[in-house]
């Protein structure tokens, strides 16, 4: 598999592609940044087993650092955008019932979950976008309060995604099956995170 993908994963430009994808998917959640990170990590697993291949495949430490950094920068960009354009954001959300309902659910979850919820939402589908924009639109949320949790979320997500691709490639072989299983595991984590976020608070 990865012999045919060599030109796509070899060279330093793959890091720029991963960074851009992770950075922008806070605004465009449909971007397959997680799939791209997993594919790059699986390519790294393929290269570690072949002599002379280490310089032609991504480095997993660099992948984790770049994916985590891009995640935090994207979160902060969305946070600041929401902070400066609160009224316009509210009008945009008002046009979509689904987004409005999601924002209300997020507000309730933030009220009971606080900072750790930022980490959990990083794994949920579109959770990163809603969390960063929702936290920025909340007047009592400051950047210095949001940043540490965003950093923890970015590191946790990057380690999990890269780990899935890398160890999946070692255990199942560097093929499409390994990538598919790893992506399914990423989606399963997202589904679990979404369930925990939407779960109603226990009655007191």
TrEMBL record:
Cell compartment(s), UniProt: Cell membrane
Membrane protein topology class: Multi-pass membrane protein
Pfam family, one: VTT_dom
Keyword vocabulary terms for this entry: Cell membrane, Membrane, Transmembrane, Transmembrane helix
Transmembrane segments: 12-28, 60-82, 146-168, 174-197
Main location: membrane
Residues covered by the VTT domain: 32-166
InterPro entries: DedA_domain, VTT_dom
CC terms in the record's Gene Ontology section: plasma membrane
Family per similarity comment: Belongs to the DedA family.
Record protein name field: VTT domain-containing protein
Species whose genome carries this gene: Streptomyces koyangensis
